[in-house]
Design goal:
The complex is a heterodimer.
Chain A lengths: L4 H14 L9 H15 L3 H10 L1 H11 L10 H11 L9 E6 L5 H12 L6 E7 L2 H9 L1 E3 L5 H11 L17 E4 L4 E4 L1 H4 L3 E4 L13 E6 L8 H13 L1 E9 L13 E4 L2 E4 L1
Parallel strand pairs in A: 1-2, 1-7, 2-6, 7-8
Antiparallel strand pairs in A: 3-5, 4-5, 8-10, 9-10
Chain B lengths: L3 E6 L4 H10 L8 E5 L9 H6 L6 E2 L12 E3 L5 E4 L5 E4 L11 H12 L3 E5 L8 H9 L3 E5 L8 H9 L4 E3 L1 H9 L3
Parallel strand pairs in B: 1-2, 1-7, 2-4, 3-4, 7-8, 8-9
Antiparallel strand pairs in B: 5-6
Helix pairs in contact in B: 1-6, 3-4, 4-5
The chains are: A alpha/beta, B alpha/beta.
The complex binds S-adenosylmethionine.
The site of S-adenosylmethionine has 22 residues of chain A, from loops.
């Protein structure tokens, strides 16, 4: 099923006119691919899809969920977690509160990685965690904190790199048991995050395209990783502006491995690797 | 007249790629987009390995980076690399296509849509069929299709699949590919 740019625009405009969702500033290539896949999976052509979207609100919600790419991991890209551990989070150690926003948290692994790290640093009690995503189904999984074990053995390697080893001192080895934070149940093939972590974050649906309506007014730290790669340059800049507005001075924004800030907005941040500190 | 080169390769292409990159002059006038499958254990250090003797800089681009002439853009491991119509790179972690991420087909198709008849597409040695569809699209849109001579390939599955799907403009040895690129004005 190959769609033309006009057909993709027709889809975007229809969704925009019948719902609160707006994909007009999503990255064109990957949106087109998602849409083509949706047509195949649902065995529909574009007209069939549009008609069903117009008459069936639940179907529309499902399609919106299917458009988003939700891949994530516990301690994804360990290097950034080491940076958070040794360079970024210690800056907030003297704060009374540490407000953290995970924008585009998907199924929650990034949030639990942060909580584990905060606990290791003795900062968990000070932390207030707000985690949001567009995809409500992903948020439900995030709240449950239960993940497949078999496909995710890499989580344990990542955990070891971030929690047990110290890249600055190879003699150091913190033998932290996995059970401190999650149970691995090989019979049901699951990894289950412990309750004391699960009840900590506030998970809410939030659309970065719309901005506004955040749980806290200001944050010390915002993580938005592997989300803006699905946005066009213009929308990326709007989202950066939103983050800038909701960061304290000296607060930091963390982007994904291959994401970067370009253009005028860069002057308002001090960049070090994937960490952007608000001036 | 050309505006870009896009190269796809898999098993057996590493030496060919390095030879090509090492032959390009510092002031090469086109961007070189590289969509290469990597072995699981050479995930990192690949860009450094390609850079050692290359005179043009090779980078793993950031998402939405503006494509500039005289620079090599290597699709990062585990990301698809697209070219947007406004000549920026777009990265994505969508599911693999034919078990591949990056997918050579996707890089070729989108690069061809952006550069139309002003692009050269080159398919090198490889053990699967990725790239064949992409090269076909590239040719349909007016681009110049080059396939490495299967007789020279360490693994010829990929080049043969490409030639089967679409007749190439040129079937070249590594030397001939280099000479062709060096003659571009
Ligand atoms: C690939 S996941 C990233 C998960 C995690 N941050 C990580 O790096 O592993 C991208 C997430 O962005 C979410 N997303 C896409 N568009 C969004 C929007 N407009 N507002 C909020 N979240 C969005 C998707 O639902 C998806 O869960």
């Amino acid at each position: 099923m190959v769609l033309s740019d006009q057909e993709v625009n027709y889809f975007i405009n229809t969704v925009k006119s019948i719902s609160a969702y707006d994909f007009s500033e999503y990255s064109e290539k990957s949106l087109k691919r998602r849409l083509q896949k949706i047509l195949i999976d649902n065995n529909l052509d574009l007209i069939g899809l549009i008609n069903k979207l117009k008459t069936n609100p639940n179907f529309l919600e499902k399609i919106v969920r299917d458009i988003t790419v939700n891949t994530t991991e516990l301690f994804r890209d360990p290097a950034i977690w080491q940076t958070l551990r040794y360079r970024v989070l210690p800056q907030f150690a003297q704060n009374r509160n540490i407000n953290i926003w995970h924008a585009g948290c998907s199924t929650g692994q990034e949030v639990y990685s942060m909580l584990i790290l905060l606990n290791e640093l003795g900062l968990l009690d000070k932390a207030k965690i707000f985690a949001s995503d567009l995809n409500t189904e992903a948020l439900e999984t995030a709240k449950k904190g239960t993940y497949k074990y078999r496909f995710n053995i890499g989580y344990l390697d990542n955990f070891d790199k971030v929690i047990k080893e110290n890249p600055l001192n190879y003699d150091e080895y913190n033998d932290v048991a996995y059970e401190k934070y999650f149970k691995i149940d090989k019979i049901s093939d699951t990894i289950i995050i412990n309750d004391f972590l699960r009840k900590k974050p506030i998970f809410r649906q939030h659309d970065l395209v719309k901005g506004g309506n955040l749980y806290f007014a200001k944050f010390d730290l915002i993580l938005c990783r592997n989300v803006i790669i699905y946005f066009k340059y213009s929308l990326q800049n709007k989202v950066f502006k939103l983050f800038h507005d909701h960061l304290y001075t000296n607060g930091s924004l963390v982007l994904g491995m291959h994401e970067t800030m370009l253009g005028e907005i860069t002057s308002r941040f001090e960049k070090k690797g994937q960490v952007y500190r608000k001036r | 007249m050309y505006k870009a080169v896009v190269i796809g390769g898999s098993a057996g292409s590493f030496q060919v790629i390095t030879k090509i990159l090492n032959s390009l002059p510092e002031n090469f006038s086109l961007p070189v987009l590289l969509s290469l499958h990597r072995l699981k254990h050479v995930r990192s250090g690949f860009v450094e390995a390609l850079s050692i003797k290359s005179q043009i800089p090779i980078v793993e681009p950031y998402d939405k980076e503006i494509i500039k002439p005289g620079k090599g853009y290597l699709a990062p491991s585990n990301y698809h690399m697209y070219v947007e119509l406004n000549k920026r790179i777009a990265l994505s972690t969508e599911e693999p296509v034919n078990h591949s991420r990056p997918s050579i087909d996707l890089t070729f198709e989108t690069a061809a849509q952006a550069y139309r008849d002003k692009i050269i597409g080159i398919i090198l040695s490889g053990a699967n069929k990725d790239g064949a569809y992409g090269l076909k699209k590239l040719k349909q849109l007016g681009g110049t299709a080059i396939v490495q001579d299967p007789n020279e390939c360490q693994v010829k599955t990929m080049t043969e699949a490409s030639l089967k799907l679409t007749p190439a403009d040129y079937t070249f040895t590594t030397e001939q590919i280099i000479n062709f690129l060096l003659k571009i004005k």
